[in-house]
Design brief:
This protein is of the alpha+beta class and 214 residues long. It is 14% helix and 30% strand. The protein has helices spanning 31-44, 167-171, 181-190, and strands at residues 7-11, 15-19, 28-29, 54-56, 72-76, 81-86, 89-95, 110-113, 118-124, 138-146, 153-156, 177-179, 196-200. Strands 7-6-5-13-8 form a five-stranded mixed sheet, with helices on one face. Strand 5 (72-76) and strand 6 form a beta hairpin.
């Protein structure tokens, strides 16, 4: 199993870093199904060479770049920069703005999987307590590329006048990776669903307390 396991990753420009096993990208054996198949094979006397029965599989094989393969998105949130790799080479790179550095909104680190690609989506904030269909924000975007089931993804942020630097510390997103419009379009055209999205902080950080609920 590689899901929820720490892995070494060769980060652009800085060498090997440890990617925390807090995402869900990788392989995970379906233990009950594997036991059932092994039992049947033993009872029948079958001689076989096969892959285990997996409940989760990855985009790349485990021996290809430590399971990440040659096509992936890399985001170093300490450097506020994203690289898109295609066939093992940087195909595109851009500055970004990640989640505000507090306990509620910071962008999680780990190895994730691109879950979907959608044009002309509408993003919704937290639901306002006691008010059905009312949210803290409603934001149309041109390119939406989610990588967590909790709603973090890459998207254009045309309301921002700058990207990169230390904007994210106090004035970042709610967890998404904000991109210039042209960068979001370029990345949208380069990535495929199920590709790994590798997110790390190459420098240490502290988180402010969560903001009060609305």
């Amino acid at each position: 199993d590689t899901v929820n396991a720490d892995r070494t990753f060769h980060a652009t420009g800085i060498g090997d870093v440890t990617i925390k096993g807090t995402g869900y990208y990788g392989y995970e054996v379906n233990q009950s199904a594997e036991i059932s198949q092994l039992t049947d094979e033993l009872n029948s006397g079958a001689v076989t060479t096969r892959e285990p029965v997996y409940s989760v599989t990855a985009y790349a094989s485990p021996d290809d770049n430590n399971g990440f393969g040659q096509n992936y998105v890399e985001a170093d949130l300490s450097r506020q920069h994203i690289w898109v790799y295609v066939n093992g080479q940087v195909a595109y790179e851009t500055d970004c703005v990640s989640g505000t550095m507090n306990e509620s909104y910071h962008t999680p680190e780990g190895a994730f999987m691109l879950l979907n690609k959608e044009k002309d989506a509408t993003l919704l904030g937290d639901q306002i307590a006691g008010k059905e269909n009312y949210y803290t924000y409603t934001q149309p975007v041109s390119y939406w590329m989610p990588f967590t089931y909790s709603g973090c993804g890459m998207h254009d942020a045309t309301w921002r006048g700058a990207f990169g630097g230390d904007i994210y510390i106090a004035n970042g997103s709610h967890g998404c990776l904000n991109l210039p419009l042209d960068a979001a379009a370029q990345i949208y055209n380069l990535v495929s669903v199920r590709e790994p999205v590798i997110i790390y902080y190459s420098a240490g950080y502290t988180l402010a307390p969560a903001p009060a609920p609305v």
